[in-house]
């Protein structure tokens, strides 16, 4: 024993309850013994020697767990292996002395290890399924690269076209004819797409098209970007956007006193089939006049309560760099504006837009006042090495990148798919921020809607099972964002609240703060005679 251990063992001579119980169990049950195999005997003797000689907790734990198993199966007691109670007590104390937190051998073996084992079982199903049920674009990169070369040659795109945002937009897939050349779809499906695209626009960047997995029915990328028959067949009347009641100035939507949005364009690189702003997107691309931006900025200037401005659309990254730079500088010049947010899905639909010129502009403005980039990623499949790199750069050059996912049937409405999405998002330098329940306002996408209870199960199931930092808030949009989380406060019992652990339903008693103490003025500083 080292001198440190010697010194500690002088201080520590008491065994705790868990260890005493463990020792008692080891000694008991010695009546109906069976023969130990010589191999097992050698193994235990060997562990005993290691436990005695090595300064590690591992051999001690393994020795005790083998002895415990032998005792529980009524095969042998420690004495049968030539290990005395004094030996066991000495080793138990040694464990406690080596461990930094003085955890006892009984505490670790009988309490902590089984509890950790139980916790592991909660994620086993997910770990087994995640890469097959919800593969990321990083995991599918080989297939995507094959898709890219096929699409590039079919559309006669050069490398330069492919790697530039302009090239991606110029070659965007916006007709059934082009789509049919790139993706193998049955004739009746193509006919139905043709019918729908008379009323709704379709535009996939060639890059986003390359994320579609060949031969997969209901591929999540396809579902998000190719309008299907349901969009016109769904019965129902569209409810006009609430924004109509909430636009106090040109281009502006305002629900809240201190935050508002400017819709700077109606354009996106790709048009989502579940788009909340379907009406706003319309049939045609629009750039707006400087006067329109001017009036929006005037409204912000005159309203000193506004501190957080969301630049959205459409997609904020559709704006040309010069216009974006000007707009950010105008906002930075307004004293009461403290934060800017940019809403964009372009890092997943056309990541080549995130080039050094754009990054310089963002960093310059973010250095004046923080910029948050708010994106929308709905499946792990949308994250490729290319989009991940765009997010890495954005998160380096701005304050944070946040994700707002939409809960969509068939796309991310299971635990496995949503957990995988949130973990992949976090691993890609992005913080999961919101999960929106798919809107009730548009009959065009009622086929994507997921019942609230299903959404709650999915979101609540993340607590305790994936990093807290990867868990988004579950939100309904109904004239503002309304939280939908389930309450884990079950009831009050005396001075306690009874809470429920979302991961296993176990109850936890949580004493509330004493209201009388809370009402008292009683910091020590109050007693310094200062009046
Ligand atoms: C989403 C949204 C906001 C921002 O909401 P946060 O909860 O602050 O992210 C503000 N105004 C409008 C009109 C919005 O749609
Ligand atoms: S990126 Fe946003 S605004 Fe554009 S189509 Fe998709 S959901 Fe609508």
TrEMBL record:
CDD domains: Radical_SAM (cd01335). PROSITE patterns: RADICAL_SAM (PS51918). It comes from the Bacteria. Keywords: 4Fe-4S, Iron, Iron-sulfur, Isomerase, Metal-binding, Pyridoxal phosphate. Pfam families: Radical_SAM (PF04055). One of its GO terms (molecular function) is isomerase activity. Residues 254-469 form the Radical SAM core domain. Its cofactor is pyridoxal 5'-phosphate. The keyword Transferase does not apply. Transmembrane segments: none annotated. InterPro entries: Lys_aminomutase/Glu_NH3_mut, rSAM. Signal peptide: none annotated. Coiled coil: none annotated. Residues 23-46 are annotated as: Disordered. NCBIfam families: KamA family radical SAM protein. Belongs to the radical SAM superfamily. KamA family. This is Radical SAM core domain-containing protein. It comes from Desulfomarina profundi.
